[in-house]
Design goal:
Elements lengths: L22 E9 L12 H18 L7 E5 L5 H4 L5 H11 L12 E4 L21 E9 L2 H18 L4 H11 L3 E8 H14 L6 H9 L5 E3 L7 E4 L2 E7 L1 H8 L7 H24 L4 E6 L8
Parallel strand pairs: 2-3, 8-9
Antiparallel strand pairs: 1-4, 1-5, 2-4, 6-7, 7-8
Helix pairs in contact: 1-5
Length: 305
């Protein structure tokens, strides 16, 4: 096996995404457990109604936001659909807004909303049915405008939004009515807030060892990151993809089992658990849009991830 040394993440878990001249966030809807959801997207006019209230809420939280352009989609998504390399949903909103007609005397405070037309959303904005049914649904938004104002608003939101960013009661009620769902809490989050929240959730779910790889894929795709912490699977993120070592039973015993352990039944159970862990890691990475490949490794064979 190739000796790659020991590597640990140098990216803080709460690092803000590098987003340039924009502020990226979401209206987060915490749903009542088990409550039905009638629809995941709404029509253009209804999306405009929600966006107007979101713009008002954000201006109340930070008055300078009133001078910025708000771009929002009238659809809700699972967190994994927002937290993907390149922030594709936010990027699509940015691109669609750039093609929207401009006013003749400046667009400060303009609100742009994209909704469904004949049941279809523009671009790649359709929520995936694979991730429906989660307890937290997100309506992504982008703030655009003057760089100095964006800096002021972005800094204030990164500092305060997770603590003070409750949505207006009428905003929550309108979202509840239009989407046909039951909202328990509605609040605003920056993308960095969502990253920190997801890191904590994954830690509670036993996925903390995987987080540095996922974090590198999201925040620093040119970064190289290893997961080399037995008994966890061996994985390597580089060049925009995660590679996971796929050990044969004999190779797994060579690397992970104690030399004195000759209990075949126990070793078979251990290998089955290891394979399940590999599948879990691959599924989480894949849900976040990180390409995953497996590198086969037999007993005594070199492995270069």
């Amino acid at each position: 096996m190739t000796n790659h040394g020991s590597h640990s993440s140098s990216i803080p878990a709460t690092s803000a995404p590098a987003t340039g001249d924009r502020v990226l966030g979401a209206l987060a809807l915490e749903l009542a457990p088990g409550a039905p959801v009638a629809r995941d997207a709404i029509a253009q006019a209804d999306a405009g109604r929600v966006a107007a209230l979101v713009a008002r809420d954000l201006a109340k939280l930070q008055p300078a936001a009133a001078a910025l352009e708000l771009v929002l989609v009238g659809a809700h998504y699972d967190p994994v659909e927002l937290l993907r390399p390149g922030w594709p949903l936010h990027h699509e909103l940015d691109q669609l807004a750039a093609r929207a007609p401009r006013g003749g005397s400046g667009d400060n405070g303009r609100v742009i909303a994209f909704g469904a037309h004949e049941g279809r959303l523009p671009g790649v904005l359709a929520p995936s049915p694979d991730f429906a049914g989660g307890p937290l649904r997100l309506l992504p938004f982008v703030l655009l405008g003057d760089a100095a104002v964006l800096d002021t608003v972005g800094e204030a939101f990164e500092r305060d939004l997770v603590e003070t960013g409750m949505a207006g009661a009428d905003t929550a009620l309108l979202a509840q009515e239009l989407f046909g769902l039951q909202v328990e809490h509605a609040r605003y989050l920056t993308l960095a807030d969502l990253l920190a929240m997801t890191a904590l959730q994954y830690e509670h779910a036993g996925l903390a060892p995987l987080w540095p790889l996922l974090e590198a894929a999201l925040l620093a795709p040119t970064h190289e990151e290893w997961l080399d912490a037995p008994p966890e699977p061996l994985a390597h993120f580089a060049d925009g993809e995660a590679r996971i070592a796929l050990f044969s039973p004999a190779a797994w015993r060579e690397r992970y089992a104690a030399e004195a352990d000759q209990d075949d039944a126990r070793l078979e159970r251990g290998f089955a658990h290891f394979q399940a862990r590999q599948r879990q890691f691959a599924a989480v990475l894949g849900a976040h849009g990180v390409p995953v490949t497996f590198a086969h490794c037999g007993a005594g064979e070199p492995l270069d991830l």
